[in-house]
Amino acid sequence: GLERALFLEADRMRAPRITDENLRNQVDVVKEEIRLNVLNRPYGGFPWILLPPVLYRTFPNAHNGYGDFTELEQADMDDCAQFFDTYYAPANAVLTVAGDISIDDAEELVERHFGDVPARPAPQRPSFAEPPPSGELRGEHADPHAPLPALAVGYRMPDPVNELDGYLANLVLAAVLAEGDGSRLQQRLVHREPLVTDIDAACGLFGPFEARDPDTFIVTAMHSPEVGQDRVLAAVDEELDKLAGAPPSDQELAKVTARWVAGLHREHDRLIARTLAFGSLELLYGDPGLAHSLPDRISAVTPDAVAAAAKALRPDSRAVLTVTPAGGDQ
Question: Is residue 205 a contact partner of residue 321, using CB atoms and an 8 Å limit?
Fold first, then answer.
């Protein structure tokens, strides 16, 4: 129940049991997770690990969040204790409780279990800002498990916190481009002139509202070896140019935003998803209530805003990652 969950989280925040044995066990767990999710599966880490070091230049934005095995093995108990003391503090945490509860009872339980957790100052929140690329950046990754070549194209997006309307226009643009069989890239590159076996467009390496600035607009595609990536890139650029010069019709936009809004309502019907959304939006915006106003904000995105978002995705300010099969005969 709620009280047990609060007790466990408060106990973890109060005094974790950091021992060398526990640390080694957790390092082994993470290494096995990397083997399963990245090293031993087709397109492992594509694009969320492989694209950032091509698009970004600073360590916080470009590095592999998992860490490589050497870095993991170098972690020691002092590192863990310092991280805990710096970041795992009440002043740096958001506790979200949602569901069929009494607010007064929930507050009493939170105070009972968290009230004696030692206070520590919140760490200074750093800026991860860096200039956008001044030209096209290219990278390549050889994948021993990939059956087909793939590419990921990354662009910088508007600041999700300080330029929310521009950010939402990019969310809608991604759906116009690649959500559903009727979307522009699906229609052209999968159906009319089949250059790819799969194509997608998305905001955020892990989805929208998961990161502060800088965030990433991504187009990914898988294609046969007979189709050169430049043909795919040229088609993507042409579709973006069309949208930049002629905004989507009201009817096309209404279909896309209706799907987005329905998806939000469907997602937030699930208690765990609603709870996570409240917490994420509190962290990013200081406003968990944004979860309730996002559907109206997305519905208000205009055709001109989508055209402006498309115009900003320029070939001379992007990263292109190529994944090449490297496993011998495919």
Answer: no
